Amino acid sequence: MPNLKKFKRFLKIGTITLISIYLLILIGGIVRSTGAGMGCPDWPKCFGSWIPPLSASQLPDKYHGQTFNVFKTWTEYLNRLAGMIVGLLIIATWIASFPLFKTTKKPFFLTLLAVILVGFQGWLGSMVVKSNLTPWIISVHMIVALLLLALMIYTLKTPEKNALPKKLKYSLLLALCFTAIQILLGTQVREKIDVLSLSSVPRQHWIEIAKEPLIFHREMAIIVLIINLWIGLELLKAKRKNTGLQIISIVLFEFLLGLILAYRALPAYAQPLHLLLGILLFGTQFNALIRGERH
């Protein structure tokens, strides 16, 4: 067994890192919903400086005449700072695994993989800027974020004493797949909206124009709602009260936000919250699944 004190320290740092990943995804959602993705037109600097300007008059000569919005610039800049902090926290989690290596090697290699993955994610972030927000690169960026989240949850897992019933375990796996697909479908909708946000089309017409990916996303939402409500109730019966209530609460709020987005012309405040709840649902399902494994 690893030293208990060192293991608790590893779990504490890892938990902070996991929370920071959720927050970073929320910030990324805010960047997209506010159209701030190109608030900094270069990488890794912002308008050629490590600290971005506060007004157009402070722009370097080569950027004079270029569109400048201080809100969008600083929103994107803070997103980059948050990404750097998450990267440092993942490295700190990896370093915290060093004292455990002699007794258990899994934390070392899992967090090392997380370090590599976050480095790749940082490179993808630079490609998002250099490609001027190419939609498919943004989608890959989201997929890697999900992988990183799942990896950290798996690294920090603490198994339950009793395994989940097989039926419930398979249902969780199915729900996890549906949730991942739904998040990716949402990304497709978001890509369509991103294109419309750069056009002269009024916001109230965006849903009508983006209806092709949106209709499928809506239909999937009903399936996701029903499956997760059933799973939540089954988890309550299986004496996993906290997890069951979490899944039920998250999926209900997620569905409500989806209705607000659909019938209130995609309000900007609801978009990042909708994404965050989808990610929280994915993380909660994955955590319930791996903690329910038989040991």
What is this entry, summarized?
The protein is an all-alpha fold and 295 residues long. The protein is 72% helix and 0% strand.
Report the portion of residues in β strands.
under 5%
Shape, please? flat
Q: Give the strand tally.
A: 0
What is the mean pLDDT?
Answer: 86
For this entry, what is the oligomeric state of its chains? single chain
Walk me through what this model shows.
The chain has two domains: 1-156, no CATH class; 162-295, no CATH class. Helix 1 runs antiparallel to helix 2 (70-96) and helix 4 packs parallel to helix 9. By secondary structure, the protein is mainly alpha-helical. The mean pLDDT is 86. It has helices at residues 4-33, 70-96, 106-130, 135-155, 166-197, 206-209, 211-237, 241-263, 270-291.
Brief descriptors of the model:
mainly alpha; 2 domains; 72% helix
Task: Give me the secondary-structure topology.
Layout: H1 4-33, H2 70-96, H3 106-130, H4 135-155, H5 166-197, H6 206-209, H7 211-237, H8 241-263, H9 270-291
Helix pairs in contact: 1-2, 1-4, 1-9, 2-3, 3-4, 4-5, 4-9, 5-7, 5-9, 7-8, 8-9
